Amino acid sequence: MSLAELICPAGTPAALRTAVDAGADAVYCGFQDATNARNFPGLNLTPDELAEAVVYAHAKGAKVLLALNTYPPAGKTDLWRQAADTGARLGVDAFIVADMGVADYIAQTYPDIRLHLSVQAAASSPEAIRYYCESFGVKRVVLPRILTIPEIRDIRKQIPCEIETFIFGNHGLMVEGRCSLTNYLTGQSTNMDGVCSPASDVQYQRQADGTMSSELAGFTIDCFGPHEKAGYPTICKGRYTAPHRSDGYYAFEEPVSLNLSRLLPALIDAGVHAFKIEGRQRSKSYVRGVVSAFRQAVDDIRAGREANLADLVALTEGQKQTQGAFETKKWR
Amino acid sequence: MNTASDTSPLGKRRGLTLGSRMACTIVQPLLSRVVRRIAARHPSLFARLGPHQSTDFLIDPIELPFALHLRPDPEALVFRAVPRDSAPAPGAMIRGKFMLLLELVDAQEDGDAAFFSRDLEVTGDTEAVVRLRNALDDIDGSIAEETADMFGPPGRVILTRLRRRYANTENGAITS
Question: How many CA atoms lie within 13 A of B40 on its CB side?
Answer without folding.
Answer: 8
